[in-house]
Design brief:
about 425 residues; Aldehyde Dehydrogenase, Chain A, domain 2; 2 domains; about 40% helix; about 20% strand
Length: about 425
């Protein structure tokens, strides 16, 4: 396991800044060549990466890490192949750098162009999931940004192997390997120092649990994009197709429980509750999902009281990331909207309904980055949205919101063309 005894954060920041100046001059073809080399390297080094991942898994198991969190940490050949595929898909995406956003000519003859440019150096602080390492690299690199990665101590060996493979690949195609760097000191002190490294880092993106994100937001002196914890809701309206609702909820909750777009909270219209709740509960029980229900649920389906626990106020606001879900009965779409806006983390919410008017009322009234009609919240993902890999899912409103792809990693500047104008 790596230690922080010899890691120099200041030097890493300086190298990243110098690399960023080089990267901003690369052509799309040069960047794509680097990405393809990195994708090939991950597959070539698959065995070595898996060997390092086993070390991380062994430590996590010894520490009593939950199955859901182990799943986030675990790599296999399929997941490494998917990581490589994700990088190759970024190659196929349009390069936003240099795009002319607007062009105007002033009365004095000045021509002003607004164009997309790289941010510069992007810092990523994240937990557990090693695939974030390659995803973050690919999106930052395609947009001409250098990236400074600080993963968690639980994945340090996996992340080190992934970054080593990528750096070697970049060197082989004559691109500076300092385009991607890993903070190998995983101490809290170094993380805090990174949050204040505004001399070199232009943008900081935290990916992880609520505690990590709150710490970054409160500590950083660098601009931050909050990527969200996901207390994601599904509301079953009175006209919902119950079979559809059961299938969507089962997928949203159980397909992968340890992710931010998994469903954590259910709301059911009181007029359909007697039929819908037993069907939903039977489905979830097949995966041993613990249901924590509000008092309204027990009064409507009292015969199911032995199968559910009483929900607390904290349960309605919780991101469980495991086999637990909250459940409440509401009087209609307006109460559903009110409940969600009270407890939401502004990530992803869905309504299951055959009433187009209620669907639009819900989609317009819920204040979250992604809102769905008759679909699983699990689609909130850069890959599923057609962005290729994603850098994260923003739950804030400034600059970026929802799955963040290439355009969200750019800034802009103005090119001004004249022919001798002076200001009077």
């Amino acid at each position: 396991m790596s230690t922080g005894s010899v890691f120099n954060l200041e030097k890493a920041g300086m190298l990243a800044k110098n690399a960023a100046y080089t990267l901003q001059g690369l052509t799309t073809e040069e960047k794509n060549r680097g990405l393809l080399a990195a994708a090939d390297a991950l597959e070539k080094e698959c065995a070595a990466i898996l060997a390092e991942n086993k070390k991380d898994i062994a430590r996590a198991e010894a520490a009593g890490t939950s199955p859901a969190m182990l799943d986030r940490l675990m790599l296999n050949e399929k997941r490494i192949s998917d990581m490589a595929l994700s990088i190759r898909q970024v190659c196929d995406l349009d390069d936003p750098i240099g795009e002319v956003l607007s062009k105007t000519e002033r009365p004095n003859g000045l021509v002003i162009e607004k164009i997309r440019v790289p941010m510069g150096v992007i810092g990523i602080i994240y937990e557990s999931r090693p695939n974030v390492t390659s995803d973050a690299f690919s999106l930052c690199f395609k947009t001409g940004n250098a990236v400074l990665l600080r993963g968690g101590s639980d994945a340090i060996d996996s992340n080190s192997a992934i970054v080593s493979a990528i750096r070697k690949a970049l060197e082989e195609v004559n691109i500076t390997p300092d385009a991607v760097q890993l903070v190998t000191d995983t101490s809290r002190q170094t993380a805090a120092e990174m949050m204040r490294l505004d001399k070199y880092i232009d943008l900081l993106i935290p990916r992880g649990g609520a505690g990590l994100i709150r710490n970054v937001v409160e500590t950083a002196t660098i601009p931050v994009i909050e990527t969200g914890t996901g207390n994601c809701h599904i509301f079953v309206d009175e006209t919902a197709d119950i079979d559809m609702a059961v299938n969507i909820i089962f997928n949203a909750k159980t397909q992968r429980m340890g992710v931010c777009n998994a469903c954590e909270s259910l709301l059911v219209h009181e007029k359909i509750a007697e039929k819908a709740i037993p069907a939903i509960c039977r489905s979830l029980k097949a995966k041993d999902i613990e249901i924590r229900a509000g008092q309204k649920v027990f009064s409507i389906v009292p015969d199911m009281s032995q199968e559910m626990k009483t929900a607390t106020e904290e349960d309605f606001a919780a991101e469980f990331l495991g086999p637990v879900i909250s459940l409440q009965v509401v009087s209609g779409v307006d109460e559903a909207i009110e409940h969600i806006n009270r407890y939401t983390t502004h990530h992803s919410e869905a309504i299951i309904t055959e009433d187009a008017g209620n669907a639009e009322r819900f989609l317009n009234g819920v204040d979250s980055a992604c809102v769905y009609h008759n679909a699983s919240t699990r689609f909130t993902d850069g890959f599923e949205f057609g962005f290729g890999a994603e850098i994260g899912i923003s739950t804030q409103k400034l600059h970026a919101r929802g799955p963040m792809g290439l355009p969200e990693l750019t800034s802009y500047k103005y090119k001004v063309y004249g022919n001798g104008q002076i200001r009077e």
